[in-house]
Amino acid sequence: MSQAKHIAIAGATGAVGVEMLKCLEQRDFPISQLTLLASARSAGKTMTFRGEEIPVQELTAHSFKGVDVALFSAGSGISKEFAQHAVASNAVVVDNSSAFRMLPEVPLVVPEINPDDARNHAGIIANPNCTTIITLMALHPLHKAFGGVRRIIASSYQAVSGSGAQGILELKAQNKALATGQPLPERRVYLRQIASNVIPHVDSFLPNGYTKEEMKMHYEGQKILHAPDLIASVTCVRVPVYRSHSVSVTAEFAHEPSVEAARLAINAAPGVHVMDDIDAELPIYPTPLDATDGDDCLVGRIRRDLVFAERGLTFWVVGDQVRKGAALNAVQIAEIL
Length: 337
Fold this sequence. Notes:
Shape: globular
Distance between the termini: 10 Å
CATH topology of the largest domain: Dihydrodipicolinate Reductase, domain 2
Strand order of the largest sheet: 3-4-2-1-5-6-7
CATH class of the largest domain: Alpha Beta
Strand content: 15-25%
CATH architecture of the largest domain: 2-Layer Sandwich
Number of domains: 2
Largest sheet: 7 strands, mixed
Helix content: 25-40%
Structural class: alpha/beta
Number of strands: 13
Low-confidence stretches: none
C-alpha cells in the first residue's frame, strides 16, 4: 500500500466511528497520524488504536490541518457544517451521511462496484445508505451477468443498530421489561414498541407514500450502477434484531437469468458469497447472526421469480450494516485513495 497517511475520524466515539477504528487496525491501513474527533462532550476521552491510547479532540473548523483523509460519521448536519473545512485544509472527505450523496459532483461509491468513481472527486466522496450497499453487493454481479437490472422490488429487515446506540438500548430495555413483567419504559427512539414487533416505517414519509429510506435505494442504485432507468420499489421495516440488515429482493433483468449462473456470478464477485442449499438436512441460508462482525454480504434463497417470469430472480441478502454498510465501506474508499 502507498505512503502512510494522516487520518481523521469525525464522530469517532459513535458506533460507526468505533467500527471505523477497528477496520483501520484490522486492515493494517498505513497511518502516520490518527486524529479522533467528536463533540465537546466526548473530548478528553481516549480510544485504543494499535495498543496506544489516543485522546479524542473536540471537532472544530480547525481540526483538519495536515489531514489527508477525513472519515465522517457524525450525521448529515455535522457533515454539512464541517466537511468543507476539511476540504479547505486539503483533506479528502469520505462521508457516511446522506448530506452529499445525490450531488452530481460527489461520487457515491461501493468499492467492489464502482471504484473508479472515487478517483473523480472534488474533495468529497459519499458512502451510500447501508441498505443500498448490502442490496447492491448481491445485485451488482447479477446486473453484469444478465445484461443489466431493470426493476427491483425489495423489502428490508433492518436491525435496531441502524438507529445508533439508542436503538439498541431501547430494544434491550423493552426485552428486559417483557421478560420480567415490568411496565415498558418510555419510548425515545421508535414510535411503536420494537420488542416482539416489526415497524414498517424507517425514516420520514414523503408525498408519494414511500419513506426517505425507501427512495434511497431507487436513486442511489441508479447512481452507483450507472443505470438511470433502474426503478426500485422498496419497503423498509425495522425488526427486533440488534445488528445486521437483511433484504428480500426480486429483480428483473434485460436477459433471462438462471439460478446456477447467478450463484456462479455472486461467488466470483468480491465481498459477497452464496449460502444457499435448501436441500441440506438443515437448510442453508444466511441470517443476521451469520453476517454480524463479518466483512462479506451473504446471499441465499436464490430462485426464479414467478412474477417477472423468464427475466426475474428472487433472493435474500444479509450484511452487517455497521461494518460493510458503513465503516468498512468508508475505509475501503480510503484504501482506493
